[in-house]
Amino acid sequence: MSSVDVRSLFLSLSQAPCLSIEESKAALLSLRKAIVSYEEELLSALYLDLGKPRQEAYMCELGLIYKEIDYYASHLARFRKPKRKRGGLASFPSKAYVEARPWGTCLILSPWNYPLLLSLDPLAACLSMGNKAVLKPSEYCPHVSQLIQRIVNEALSDKQALCVLGPKETAEQLTALPFDFVFFTGSSKVGREVYKAASENLTPCVLELGGKSPCLVSEHADLRLAARRIVFGKCLNGGQTCVAPDYVLVDKRVKEPFVSMLKEAVDELYPNGMLGNADYGKIVSSAHLRRLLSLIDRPVLLGGKHNDSQLEFTVIEADFASLSMQEEIFGPLLPVIEYEDLDGAIKAISDRAIPLSLYVFTKSRSEAKSILSSLDFGGAVVNDTLMHLTVPTLPFGGKGASGLGSYHGPYSLACFSRETPVLHRGKIDVKLRYPPFSSKKEKLIRKIFR
Ligand code: NAD
Fold first, then answer.
1. Which of 106, 325, 414, 428 has a CA between 20 and 30 Å from the CA of residue 11?
2. Could you please report the per-residue DSSP string of 309-360?
3. What is the pTM of this model?
4. Residue 208 bears catalytic tag
5. Cβ of 327 below 6 Å from ligand 1
């Protein structure tokens, strides 16, 4: 699609009116119905593009989308209703209120790893608040992206949403346009470029980015539970999850039993091995697999085998100079670094970019509390991985290099709207504020400000 096409699509969408509450509800209903009608095709496409097992695909994509759409549909009217505020004395008499109004025309750019969830959840939230949207899914999951385009075309009018397919260059053309709001999910590197492009138009952005999410395993951890939950978090979607545990910092005194429990956990979750196992996803491309293999520059403690599209859960003995510690891994490779004292481990984490998620494993509440209060993070989980994403009342987002802004549930509705103040003045016109000024007026003004 040429840049002219992208621009004219944008212009025609931006001239369309925003959606009323009734239109938003109808759009959500129609979107949900279309997703349900394509459910089997979507599950197959997720398998073709990413080898996602059916249960995993339902659990981590479709099921979450339905839950989010249902939440938006039943809460959007309340969210959009103007909320009365107390008018100040200076503007007496008046009626003041705040209204969550749509931004207008929004751009949604999504990645390949959860291609359905990360396209359709923001799209649904966007429409809920009355916005119109241009959605560009990732070029690296072509089967899913084509279905998303069909769903959007069938469920929504071209005055409500458009789905544009294309390579990175298409995304660049889109980010140069003066959208009212940009919602980007992807890498920190591309997030910076998107932010830079948006700043040219002073377009507000939410950036849902990635990074290295650490697991801190203390000597007081339940090691068996920690191992099983870390293996789960690292193997879901072949480790290609933005909040996947990226590396482990483990107390030197418990490192050996912890590593052997990682092995036990792998054997328990994948009793028939990992390669060729239909319960274990694939690596998105051979280039990505090659990149993962090139990061193994230290002794392998567990796993290490691969086929054309899968890499076993692989534990490597690492230090902070290891290649695997220089970038987000985004695959089933787990560097394990031992620490001697907890303060040193905390410092090592805080010396690095603020992680999207922090995972702390300890049975001691006071230890967990002290670790959390010493560190900065997008979100944290004590004694598990990933599960904060499943709690509908919690916001999700990063800080610094891991992102800007947050969404999910009520936070999505807040994210896709702007709290806009409106003041209605009455007829009575107190003359106090008008010239000519006098000492009597000033005295009264001073009383008001006291
Ligand atoms: P990516 O940043 O390469 O691409 C994301 C989207 O941006 C794609 O649609 C792509 O076409 C587009 N894009 C690429 N270059 C662009 C440019 N120069 N300008 C504008 N748009 C451009 O990310 P990816 O490889 O698809 O996904 C993996 C990354 O996403 C990982 O870093 C992961 O941690 C992160 N991620 C974050 C979250 C989150 O919610 N925080 C969720 C999933 C993935």
1. 414
2. S-B--EEEE--TTSGGGSS---SSEEEEEEESSHHHHHHHHHTSPPPSEEEE
3. 0.96
4. yes
5. no
